[in-house]
Amino acid sequence: LKAFPDIERNHYKLWLTSTNTLQILLNQSTYLDSEWGLEKIKKFSKYYAKTSNHDEAKDLLEKVHSVIISGEPGAGKTTLAEQLCLEYVLCGFELVIIEDDIKDAKNVFNKMGKQIFYFDDFLGSNYLEGIENKEDSKIMKFIEAIKDDDNKRFILTSRSSILNQGRNISAIFKNKNLEQREYVLDVTELEDIDKARILYNHIYFSQLNESYIEQLYIDKRYLEIINHKNFNPRLIEFITDVQRFDLISSAEYWDKVEDSINNPKDIWEHVFHNQLKEYERILIFIIVYFGNKIAEEVLKATVKKYFISKNILTTNIQFDKAIKTLSGSLITRVIGGESIFFELFN
Predict the structure, then answer these.
(1) Which residue range(s) make up the domain with 231?
(2) Rounded mean pLDDT of 176-186?
(3) Is the pLDDT confidence value at 102 over 50?
(4) Of 345, 315, 320, nearest to 125 (Cα)?
């Protein structure tokens, strides 16, 4: 059948007994997410500058077969994780991207095959409540299951603040010594040469006109970027994105770059005005109105009342999706006692 896939497709009774085919049919969403995710990772790889962080995280991954990459927003956690995944794919591993639930990994687990599982922001959005439903236990069981399997690797990412909250409320995370699998990505510890590589790669592969790029070389201005206290990969991506500066002249470009590195809030301002949906912007306005901190149930009720006043119906699913989009970039999710609060990201 593998030699004649057209026959297999046209005669469904032949493949109804095929375990591999049934697995693909039943878990098509996971396979598609992984396929699309891998294409995105490949496209971004040209911007990636391999630093000492890459080798250190990989060494830990090889040692215990799973690694949690933690760090502050903008530090490059996701990029590091994705490029590690790509390296393993090039070595013959199948990439499995976990979107929401560890069961995605279990459903496509291949005992005999090489697989690398990737769970981005595994404690983000609504996942902290999952600890009460023993989701932490499921993750630790999966980690334990593959620790001695040379054909399996598991990469997870989390913001440092969220991971600390997870440890505080999960006895399982504490007892299983999650720290042994944690790799903390700290941009402030990057060598200048690594920062220079990150900046160079983004400039080289950007679509910025030469006249704009020349502005960065005048009086070695690029050193100001490399040595700046606010340096991080997300900021570099922002200042080398041609679409953000298409309305200004090359002579004005450096001033805009300086403003961006001195006031990183401009990055979030661009996201707010150009990349968010109306529903998401209203959520931000409400949080600001309540003094930059608001309980989840109050936020949900308030946004619902707002849209009712506009004769617009909204759903809980819409709320959950918006929170997932905003978490880690514009808002931070905090668990305090039995309540959940949202704050503006600082």
Answers:
(1) 190-270
(2) 84
(3) yes
(4) 320
DSSP tag of 327: B
C-alpha dist (Å) from residue 324 to 119, 175, 257, 318: 14, 28, 29, 10
Q: Do 154 and 41 share a structural domain?
A: yes
Decide: 215 and 249 in contact? Cβ < 8 Å.
no
DSSP label at 93? P
**Rounded Cα–Cα distance for residues 35 and 21 (Å):** 16
d(CA 336, CA 324): 19
Q: Among 8-17, 33-42, 272-281, whose mean pLDDT is lowest?
A: 8-17
CATH of the domain at 299: 1.10.10
Q: How many domains does the chain have?
A: 3
- In terms of Cβ atoms closer than 10 Å to its own Cβ (0-12, 13-18, 19+), residue 125 is buried
CB 238 within 8 A of CB 244: yes
Is the pLDDT at 59 greater than 90? The verdict is yes
What's the CA gap between 200 and 49, in Å, rounded? 9
> Residue 201 in 3-state DSSP?
helix
pLDDT at 167: 75
Amino acid at position 268, single letter = W
Torsion of CA 70, 76, 78, 84, to 10 degrees: -90
Check residues 326 and 235 and name the one with the higher pLDDT: 235
Measured between alpha carbons, how far is 254 from 242 in angstroms, rounded to an integer? 13
User: What's the pTM?
Assistant: 0.73
- What are the beta bridge partners of residue 340? 335
Query: What's the average model confidence in pLDDT over 270-291?
Result: 86
Residues 163 and 280 in one domain: no
How many other CB atoms sit within 10 Å of the CB of residue 18?
14
Query: From CA 153, how far away is CA 114, in angstroms rounded?
Result: 8
Residues 6+ apart with CB under 8 A from 121: 78, 157, 158, 159, 162, 327, 328
* pLDDT tens-digit series, residues 31-55: 888 999 999 999 999 999 999 999 9
What length does the chain have? 346
